[in-house]
Fold this sequence. Notes:
This protein is an alpha+beta fold. The protein is built from 6 helices and 16 strands.
Amino acid sequence: MFQEFTILLFLEYCAGVDVISRASKKEVYLDKTFFMSLENYQVNAKYVTEAQYPWVAKIVHSSSEDIPYMCTAICIDDRVFITAARCIYSLKIKHTRVIYQNVKLPVLTFVLPSIPSKQAFDDIGFIVVQPANTEPVWKKVALYNKKRTDDAFQWFADSNFNNYKVIGYATQKGIHRIKSADRVFNLTELTVIINIELCSKIMTFHDHITGFRVPCYHSCNADEFIKKDPKCSNYHGVEGGAVVSSDGILLGIATWGAYFHKYELPVGFSVVNSNNFYSDFDCAKRIRDSGVNGGYQGICG
Ligand SMILES: *[C@@H]1O[C@H](CO)[C@@H](O)[C@H](O)[C@H]1NC(C)=O
């Protein structure tokens, strides 16, 4: 309710203000931006199976049950998963389980970003699971490995991202708003368009304010959105959803988006190639290899 109300107010407010001069392309302008959490629903997404995406996992917050579902997670190394950092903040390690290849894995530690971004819009969190006697065969996704060169996403604007889709556990729009622990979340995928324009045009009400020049995807491009193309009503927004290329390379993790009951808005994601990402990943691997149950990342500095 709050979020729906906010975005409505936000759009109406923006419609009435003059164009504010754009911030320099060398910085991400965050003064007028707010990054809300995804509500884990989809519209017209395709049902897929874990066999098709063996690196995908489900985070639940119960040591005994398979519910409640919290977020989607992705296996990137033996016993190491990533998700949206904002998903992990509210979880207790003792209650959290990663359901991966039908095995329920208890958590050893969470690694949260050492250098957080505003409202965690660009933050990936790591989950290291405990060792087990019979471990699953670790199926990992390959990571996008081109280097990110600045904070302002110019490197992102200069890249072309074609043939991408997003995959994650989602429920259906509408019923997702009724709070219920036993809501069914199915693994689904949606083909998406990715570029720097989507959020900077749509979330700023066609440039009436400055901001949101950050990585986003949507089911249609900004021009189609303005023309109300029917395909823009397709949607997939789940915390931790995997943004992958058709050849199976993980570009990023869905982290934020706004809910609006009348139409669908773009979804923001965090790209996996930052220095912070790699230093946190190293930290996760060190904790895994040391076997120390650190809770949060005690041994990484
Ligand atoms: C969604 O998941 C539930 C529970 O896992 C399952 O019973 C149902 O068949 C799934 N629906 C589809 C369309 O795959």
